[in-house]
Amino acid sequence: MGAYYDEIEIEDMSWDAVKGVYHYPCPCGDRFEISRKQLANYEDIATCPSCSLVIRVVYDPLDFEDEPPGDESESEGSAEEETDSDSNDDHFEDALDKLSLNDQPTPATVAISA
Q: Which residue ranges are recorded for the region named Disordered (predicted)?
């Protein structure tokens, strides 16, 4: 996309926890919106739902790389996701407890063909 109304730093946008989006005032009276999921997917275009204007959001994608994958809505499932991630950490710790390293180096076998 080539024509943006403006380029706005993410720090200049406001976070709306109810809708789960960053927003910025649009000249039409509504507001440009972009979600954390969109930012995590390297999408940098915030749209206005009332008009055809778009802005480019300037941000560091690394700030949003830990955003969990999934749909746009952050509903009741978010609490379950946190519980699931805790159980995944337990599996990781169990694997580390079972890990054993051998101090004896294993000789490498090299086949030479003539």
A: 62-114
Non-local (6+) Cβ contacts of 42 within 8 A are 61
CA 24 to chain centre: 20
Q: What is the DSSP letter of 86?
A: H
pLDDT digits (tens, 9 = 90+) for 18-58: 988 999 999 999 999 999 889 888 899 999 999 989 999 99
Look up the domain containing 38 and give its range.
Answer: 1-70
Residue reference for tokens 């406001």: 14
> Is residue 42, in this structure, part of any structural domain at all?
yes
* Alpha helices (H) in the chain, listed in sequence order: 36-40, 77-98
- CATH (domain of 60): 3.10.660.10
